[in-house]
């Protein structure tokens, strides 16, 4: 008789994670879609800046001139661990589940299996939302403040290309010139990174100001030359394609996604937008962004030995005898990495 496989076996739980429909995220799919896992808790990150070197002129009677290789900086990080946890006890499996009829004949084992499947989805989604929050923090501030129980770390990428507009430069002032400001910041990005911006992310309140701005409307009304086009359409996961500024080579998006901020004031959590109000982001989908995952070290419940697992999601399960309860935890050590820190620009425009 073949050995019976427990639904709480880490292999079974991991298969449930990787085979379920993923919770797609706009920022990860658009930018941080290069994923790499490590077999150690710490990860090495390479940063580099390109320079526009030209080939030297050399006489045909002289040997060639050596061009030095571009350098890069390597930094080592140990990403804090995400460890969302859920418990199942006798009360959970002996009462009607959500959506069940009053006369359902489900056994406690059936309910336990359903709860496991539901908990895997919810715990995995909570990690996905935290990752999306980390991507937004990188893109709109250049740093990530990781605050939690026993954790208070600042991941700072020394990002400097950000402005706050004031007075008549603010986009809600009719005297401002959004097109000229985008043009100027685009040139800064191209000069400092060699990357051509092709995307602008705008907060929802900025979008309305932008598309109704007199100078933008005037620009978009010029039909002889296709300088721009506003053509909103919905994309998955709260993203909206607003249109394009062809003269700048920019596609414009808004992203209506929120997160529950329990870090700023744990007693009074509030919903906050992923893209901060009044801000825009100017950058490129061709710049190099990655998501790195450090390994997770666990203890084998049978042998009591430590072991280390490489992956983006590491499930584990254990039981307590008194009170009787089974726990499910999914572990992850994500690290968002912008390799070309000068490849984008942030502007607070209203």
Q: Superfamily at the CATH H level of the largest domain?
A: putative capsid protein of prophage domain like
Shape estimate: globular
> Runs with pLDDT <50, length 5+?
221-225
Helices, by number, come to 7
Largest sheet: 7 strands, mixed
Please tell me the overall pLDDT.
83
CATH architecture of the largest domain: Super Roll
Strand order of the largest sheet: 7-21-14-8-11-10-9
CATH topology of the largest domain: putative capsid protein of prophage fold
Care to count the β-strands? 21
Strand content: 25-35%
CATH class of the largest domain: Alpha Beta
Whole-number count of domains = 2
What is the SS-derived class? Answer: alpha+beta
Assembly of the depicted chains:
single chain
Terminal Cα separation, in Å? 69 Å
SSE series: HHEEEEHHEEEHEHHEEEEEEEEEEEEE
**Over the alpha carbons, how many angstroms does the gyration radius reach?**
25 Å
Q: Which range best describes the helical content: under 10%, 10-25%, 25-40%, 40-55%, 55-70% or over 70%?
A: 10-25%
Protein name: Major capsid protein
InterPro entries: Major_capsid_GpE (IPR005564)
Protein architecture, described:
It comes from Paenibacillus psychroresistens. InterPro entries: Major_capsid_GpE. This is Major capsid protein. The chain has 350 residues and is of the alpha+beta class. The protein folds into two domains: 10-50 and 72-154 and 290-338, putative capsid protein of prophage domain like (putative capsid protein of prophage fold, Super Roll), CATH 3.15.30.10; 161-288 and 343-348, phage-related protein like domain (phage-related protein like fold, Alpha-Beta Complex). The protein contains seven helices and 21 strands. The strands form seven sheets. The chain has a seven-stranded mixed sheet with strand order 7-21-14-8-11-10-9, with helices on both faces. The protein has a three-stranded mixed sheet with strand order 1-15-20. The N and C termini lie far apart (69 Å). The model is unreliable at 221-225 (pLDDT under 50).
């Amino acid at each position: 008789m073949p050995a019976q496989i427990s639904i709480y076996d880490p292999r079974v739980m991991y298969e449930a994670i990787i085979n379920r429909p993923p919770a797609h995220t706009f920022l990860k799919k658009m930018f941080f879609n290069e994923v790499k896992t490590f077999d150690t808790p710490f990860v090495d990150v390479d940063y580099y800046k390109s320079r526009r070197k030209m080939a030297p002129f050399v006489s045909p009677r002289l040997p060639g001139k050596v061009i030095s290789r571009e350098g890069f900086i390597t930094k080592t990080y140990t990403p804090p661990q995400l460890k969302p946890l859920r418990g199942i006890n006798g009360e959970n499996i002996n009462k009607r589940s959500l959506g069940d009829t009053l006369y359902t004949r489900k056994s406690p084992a059936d309910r336990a299996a359903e709860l496991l499947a539901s908990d895997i989805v919810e715990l995995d989604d909570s990690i996905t939302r935290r990752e999306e929050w980390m991507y937004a923090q990188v893109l709109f501030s250049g740093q990530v403040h990781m605050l939690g129980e026993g954790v208070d770390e600042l991941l700072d990428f020394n990002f400097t290309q950000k402005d706050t507009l004031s007075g008549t430069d603010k986009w809600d002032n009719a005297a401002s010139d959004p097109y000229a400001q985008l043009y100027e910041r685009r040139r800064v990005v191209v000069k400092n990174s060699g990357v051509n911006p092709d995307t602008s992310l705008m907060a929802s309140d900025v979008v309305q100001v932008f598309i109704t701005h007199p100078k933008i409307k005037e620009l978009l009304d010029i039909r002889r030359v296709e300088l721009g086009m506003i053509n909103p359409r919905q994309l998955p996961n709260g993203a909206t394609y607003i249109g394009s500024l062809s003269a700048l080579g920019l596609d414009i998006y808004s992203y209506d996604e929120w997160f529950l901020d329990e870090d700023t004031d744990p007693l009074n959590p509030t919903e906050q937008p992923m893209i901060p109000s009044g801000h825009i982001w100017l950058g490129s989908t061709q710049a190099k962004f990655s998501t790195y995952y450090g390994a997770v070290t666990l203890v084998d419940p049978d042998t009591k030995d430590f072991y280390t697992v490489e992956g983006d999601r590491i499930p584990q399960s254990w039981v307590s005898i008194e009170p009787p309860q089974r726990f499910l935890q999914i572990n992850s050590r994500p690290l968002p990495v912008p390799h070309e820190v000068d490849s984008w620009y942030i502007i607070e425009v209203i």
